[in-house]
Amino acid sequence: MLLVVDRDVDVVKVTKDLIKIDTRNPPGLTTEAVEYLQNLFSSFKTKVYSKENGKENLVVEISRGKPTIMLTSHLDTVPSEDMLLNPVIVDGKLYGRGSCDAKGCVAAICKAGLELADSVELGLKLAFTADEEIGGVNGLGFVFPREKSDLVLIGEPTGSCKVGVLQAAVFALDIEISGESGHTATKDAKDGAIYKASEYIISTLEKFKHVKGEFKKYKTIFEELGYGFLVRGCGDAVFNPAIIKGGIKRNVVAPRCTIKADVRFAPWVNVNEIRDALFDDRIESIKVEGFLRPYGVNFDNVDFKKDLKVLEILKKAIERENMEPKAVFSLGVGDSRHVRKFGIPAFYLGPGGENLHSENEYVYISELYTASQVYCNFVRIFSREVAEL
Predict the structure, then answer these.
(1) Fold of the CATH domain 11-167+294-385
(2) What distance in Å separates the CA atoms of residue 242 and residue 259, rounded to the nearest whole number?
(3) pLDDT tens digits, residue range 230-275?
C-alpha cells in the first residue's frame, strides 16, 4: 500500500534552513542537519549510520521494490566565515555556504522524494551523508555497502540538464627539491631550495598548459545517445602546488624544500605526458602520497550496457523539461567512486549555481525546482521502462 504524504515542500526554505545549520568541514558535524531532515521525513522509515561521532548519515526509505534507486547528496561544506551561514536571495540567486555545494542538491532531493512517495512502486532511498568534502569515507563510503541500491544519482551542482559521467585521475605528490644552504649575508638565495622550487613551479605550470589528450572517441559514446559533451574546468590536466614546506630559520638559505602538489588529469591523457611534465633536473625525488583512479563511463568496472540504459532514461527525464542533455567530464572528484567500485551505475546531477567553495557561492532558485523535477521524471520513467538492472 502506497503512503500518502504532503507533497508541498518549500525547496527554497529547506535550502535556506540547511545553510543556517553549520556543517562546515572541519569539523563537519552533521547531527543537527540530520535531525532537521528526520523531522521533514517523520512519516517514513529512517536509519542513521555513523562511523565517527557527530558525523551522522541519514537514509530515508521512500518505498520498497526492485530495482532500487538511491538519490543522495552530502551535508558537509567547505569552511567559510560565519556570515555565509546567513542565506541571502538576490536576483533569483540564493547565496550562502553550501547553497550550491550541496545543500541545494539536498533540498531538491527532499522535494523529489516527497513528491514521489505515493506515485512509484519501485524501491527508492534517499541518503544524506557526511564528509564528502574530505573524501566521503565516513559518508557515502560507509553508508553504501550497508544500503546497496541498483543505481545512484548523486546530487552535485552540475546543472539540471548536465550529467556528470566521468571524473579525473588524481595524484597526491611530495616533490623534494634540494639546494645549497648558507647564511643570508653570504650565500646567494638563488642557490637555495626555495628559489629552485619557485622556478620549478613556474615551469611545471607552463608545461601542464600543453598537456592535451584526445577524447573524440569518448565524446562519440554520448553523441550517439543524443548528448552533448563538455569538459569543465581548467583543461585536460592540472598541477596545483598547494603547500610548500622547507627552510631552517629566517637567516639561513634553505637546503631542502617539499612541494605538496595535487595533480589531476583526464583518463584519456597518457600518464607518460604527466610524468614528462613533472620531472625536472631541479627535483631530487617525487613521492606518491596517494592515488585516485578515474571513475566513470567506460573507465571502470561498471557494465557499459547498464550505464547506457541509465543515461538513456536520464536523457528522457531532462528532455521532458525542454532541455538539451549534456554529458560532463570534470577534473573534480566526488562520491561516485564509493558506488561504482561495486559495479553499480552512479552519475552526478543537481541544481546549478556558481562559485562553489568561494565567498560568493550561490544556487539558481529556478534550478532547485528544475533539478527536483528531473529527479522525479527519472524515477517515474525508470519505474515504467525497466524491470531490472
Answers:
(1) Aminopeptidase (3.40.630)
(2) 7
(3) 998 888 999 999 999 999 999 999 999 999 999 999 999 999 999 9
